[in-house]
Amino acid sequence: MTDLTTATAEQLGRAIAAGESSAEEVTRAHLDRIAAVDARVHAFLHVDADGALAAARAVDARRAAGEALGPLAGVPVAVKDVLCTRGVPTTAGSKILEGWRPPYDATLVARLREAGMVILGKTNMDEFAMGSSTEYSAYGPTRNPWDLGRIPGGSGGGSAAAVAGYEAPLAIGTDTGGSIRQPGAVTGTVGVKPTYGGTSRYGLVAFSSSLDTPGPCARTVTDAALLHAVIGGHDPMDSTSIPAPVPPVVEAARRGASGDLSGVRLGVVAEFAGDGAEPGVAAVFRDTVARLTKLGAEIVEVSCPHFAYALPAYYLIAPSECSSNLARFDGVRFGLRTGDDGQRSLEEVMSMTREAGFGAEVKRRIILGAYALSSGYYDAYYGQAQKVRTLITRDFTAAFGRVDALISPTTPFVAFPFGARTSDPYQMYLADLYTIPTNLYGGPAISVPAGLSDGLPVGLQVMAPTMADDRMYRVAAALEAAVGPLAPPAL
C-alpha cells in the first residue's frame, strides 16, 4: 500500500486541490492496489481502468485551467453493481443481466461525475441485493479483508470490502434492510443509510421500491458526510425524492469530531440493548454506551415494542415488492434469453430464462412475495405487514419525542465464516435484525466502528428522525474520535 491508498477521501481531495498529487496519480495508486489484492478479496465485478484514468485526467485538466472544483474532485469511488452506469456492465450480481451495458447513468452516478469523482468500477453484491453475506452473488463471494475466510456482509459486501481493503477510499451502496450498515459493521467501515427519498433511486435496479435507499460507504464519518453531500438532494426523475436540501451533514460530522455530545439525548432501544447478540458484541455495546456518556450524552432507555415484529413484516413487504419488480426480467426485452429455438412458446422461453438466470435466494423471495400478494392471502399477509410497518413508525415517532437519536448494535454478531448460515435462511435473515426497523420507518441510520470482538469489528448503529441525518453524523463522529480508527490486518 501507498500513502495515497491509505489516505482518507478528505485528505486526497485536499492534496489534489493543493497540487501535491494529481487525480491521475491517486487513481493509478488505487488501480494498482486493486490489481494487487482483488484476486483474493473479489470486491469488484468490473474495473473500468480506462474510464477511471480518463476521468482523472479530465479533472487535472480542469484544475489546471483554473476551474473551481468541489472537495471530492479527483477522488476515486467504487459503485455497487445495482446502479446503472452508461456503457459499463451492470449486472446486479445476477446472471440474468450478465453483459448488460445500460444506455444511461443513474442519477447518483451522474452526480458523482458532475462532482469530478473518479469511478473505479462496479462492486460485487448479493444477487439483486437479496442477501446478508454476498454469498448469493452469481459471480462468487466477496471476502472480508479482516479475515478472508469470513463474509464481508451483504448485500453490499463488495463496496464495504473495497473500502476496508484500501481498494477505494469511498463507495456507493444501497440499503433495503441493512445492506450498507451491516457490511460496514462487519468490515470496520462507516456505512450510511440516508433518509428514504433523500437520495435518488432513479437508475437503481429495484429490489423493494418502498425500502431501497442508496448511500455512502467510507472509512471515516467525515468522508461519508462529504459523499452524502454529493449524492443527496431532490431528483425530479424520482417520484419518491424529497424536495428539500440535504441536511448539514458535513458540518455535523465536523462538529461531532470535537468529541462533545453535551445536551444530546440518546435512546437505548430496550428491545435491542444487546439481547440476542453474541456476548462480545453485547460487551462492546455496553462499553460504547459508557463512552458516549463520558462524551456528555444523556442516555435514556426507550421501548419500541413493535420492533420485535420488524423482521417478519419486512420479509413479507420486501419479497412482495421484489416479485413485482423482477417480473420485467422475462428474456424478452433485455438481458439473458434462454431456450428460444423458434419452436418453444413465449411462456416456455420466459420460464427457462428465469430458471437459468435467477439464483436460489431470488427465486425463494419471488415465490414468497407472489404468494403473499395472491388472491385470498393479500390481506392476511401483505396487508397485515403494512399495518405492522405503521406501528413501527409510531414507535419511532414516540421515541424521537423523548430523545434526539436512538442507538443499538448494528448486527447481532461479527463476520461469520463462509457457509455458516447459507443452509438456514432464517439464520441469515437475523443478520439484519437491528437494521430493518429503520428501513420500514424511512429514517436515516449510520453504522460506525465501535470496537473489536475476538479481533473482528463491531458496529454501533445510530438512528435519527427523517430528514435529521445531521444528528446521526454528529453522534457517530464523536464516537469515532473516542474509539479511533480500526485497521484490518495487511492483506
The CATH architecture of the domain at 3-260: Alpha-Beta Complex
Q: Could you name the ranges where pLDDT drops below 50 across 5 or more consecutive residues? A: none
Number of helices: 17
Structural class: alpha/beta
Q: What's the alpha carbon Rg, rounded to whole Å? A: 21 Å
Shape: globular
Largest sheet: 11 strands, mixed
- Within the largest sheet, what's the order of strands? 1-3-2-4-6-5-10-11-9-7-8
Q: Estimate percent helicity.
A: 25-40%
What's the β-strand tally? 11
Strand content: 5-15%
CATH-level-4 superfamily name of the domain at 3-260: Amidase signature (AS) domain
Characterization of the model:
Keywords: ATP-binding, Ligase, Nucleotide-binding, Protein biosynthesis. This protein has 491 residues and is of the alpha/beta class. The chain has a domain at 3-260: Amidase signature (AS) domain (Amidase signature (AS) enzymes, Alpha-Beta Complex). 40% of the residues lie in helices and 13% in strands. The protein is built from 17 helices and eleven strands. It has helices at 3-6, 9-17, 23-41, 49-64, 107-114, 157-164, 181-187, 221-231, 249-256, 279-294, 310-325, 346-357, 360-373, 379-400, 425-429, 436-441, 469-483, and strands at residues 44-47, 76-80, 118-123, 170-175, 190-193, 213-218, 265-269, 298-302, 405-409, 445-453, 456-463. An eleven-stranded mixed beta sheet has the order 1-3-2-4-6-5-10-11-9-7-8, sandwiched between helices. Helix 5 (107-114) links the parallel strand 2 and strand 3 (118-123). Helix 11 (310-325) crosses helix 14. The relative contact order is 0.14. The model has no long low-confidence stretch (mean pLDDT 96).
